[in-house]
């Protein structure tokens, strides 16, 4: 029974992968809102197609050491009222200070074990650093 529980926990575990487009971004301008299709994540060479025009081939690389991904979000500045209850009717109340700009809060999101580095597929049609439609 323990073997079944262990294998089920292994199947339910999420795994995060970083998509590394650094080598591609130097030669091709990819719009931030471009549509994409990512296939073959469970193969040795996943394929990423951007805007139905640019085909990229990926290769997994194991990370060395600990690779942690952080999330960043705006949080309002909050003041908490403190003091004796006779002098302060709002003791323990939190007040958002709208005169202060929000601060950035960074939190660990996940730990990575793999990086997926992409390169342009030989059969992609690219000219002069822009994506052209296949003819």
Automatic annotation (TrEMBL):
It holds the Pfam family TFIIIC_sub6. InterPro entries: GTF3C6-like (IPR042771), TFIIIC_triple_barrel (IPR019481). Residues 13-119 form the Transcription factor TFIIIC triple barrel domain. GO terms for cellular component: transcription factor TFIIIC complex. GO terms for biological process: transcription by RNA polymerase III. This is Transcription factor TFIIIC triple barrel domain-containing protein.
């Amino acid at each position: 029974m323990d073997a079944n529980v262990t294998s089920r926990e292994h199947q339910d575990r999420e795994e995060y992968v970083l998509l590394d487009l650094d080598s591609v971004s130097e030669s091709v301008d990819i719009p931030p809102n471009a549509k994409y299709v990512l296939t073959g994540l469970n193969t040795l060479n996943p394929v990423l197609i951007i805007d139905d025009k640019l085909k990229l081939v990926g290769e997994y690389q194991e990370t060395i050491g600990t690779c942690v991904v952080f999330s960043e979000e705006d949080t309002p500045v909050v003041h908490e009222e403190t003091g004796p209850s006779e002098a302060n009717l709002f003791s323990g109340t939190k007040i958002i200070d709208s005169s202060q700009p929000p601060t950035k809060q960074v939190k660990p999101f996940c730990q990575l074990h793999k990086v997926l580095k992409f390169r342009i597929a030989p059969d992609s049609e690219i000219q002069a650093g822009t994506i052209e439609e296949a003819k």
